[in-house]
Structure formats: C-alpha cells, structure tokens
Design a protein that fits this description.
With about 130 residues, the protein is of the alpha+beta class. Helix content is about 50%, strand content about 15%. The protein has a single domain, classed as 2-Layer Sandwich (Zincin-like), CATH 3.30.2010. It contains four helices and five strands. α1 packs parallel to α2.
C-alpha cells in the first residue's frame, strides 16, 4: 500500500526544485518578463494522457498539476522538464512541433534527457537541506 504525499510537501519540493534549476541550469536571458510559476490543484488530461505540467512560451509561465504527481520524483522531474522548455527557443520548438510527433521532437527529447540526468541529483540536494 502506497502512502500519498501531502500537498505542502509537494509545494516545498517544487519550490526548491525551481530554485535548483535557476542555480544549476541558468536563466533564459532572451525573455523580457520573469518566469512565473503555478502549482495547480486540478487534474489535467489531454487526448487521454495525464498532463504533469506544461510551459507556455508566450506567457513565460510554468504550471505543475500536483494531483497528477504521485511521487516527489515526479514533482522534481516534471519541473526540470518544463524548466528545460523555458530555456529553449520558442521558434525552434514550434518548427519541430509542426513537423514531428511529440516523441520525435528534439526539444522534448532534450527535456526528457535533463529529467533523467538531473532529477536524482536535485532530490539529493533538497533532502540534504531539510
């Protein structure tokens, strides 16, 4: 039987992850506005798939759907994934989006690689600061 993680813990890990990303992955200097961040308490699905988070290039806004994240690993990896999109070029992303499937988009692949590469490192960092 798995135990659920309370919302306050998810929020703490989300905020710490965002700070870790800023310090370790850098900031997007091409943006005119500061990145905004929202932790939503609603479930979201798109075309039958669970949506963990998304980044809006136009609003420079990241949303994480907390009910869809069942583990702290999912919270952290989702933020790293979406933060990677924040660092990417909107024009290039759109170009790939028009010509390739989601799973074949090089920018999605890059975000997935960053998830795989940095999630455990970030979790270790957060846990060492508790």
């Amino acid at each position: 039987m798995s135990r659920s993680i309370d919302v306050d813990t998810k929020i703490y890990y989300a905020e710490q992850t965002l700070q870790w990303c800023r310090e370790n992955l850098g900031e997007n200097t091409r943006k005119r506005t500061e990145l905004t961040f929202d932790l939503s308490l609603r479930n979201r699905k798109m075309k039958g798939f669970i949506v963990y988070g998304n980044y809006c290039f136009w609003r420079n806004h990241m949303t994480i759907y907390l009910p869809n994240t069942n583990t702290l690993y999912e919270v952290v990896s989702t933020i790293i994934h979406e933060y990677t999109h924040y660092l990417q070029s909107r024009v290039k992303y759109r170009e790939y989006e028009k010509t390739r499937y989601y799973s074949q988009n090089p920018m999605e692949r890059s975000a997935k690689r960053n998830e795989d590469r940095y999630t455990k490192m970030c979790l270790k960092y957060i846990k060492s600061n508790l």
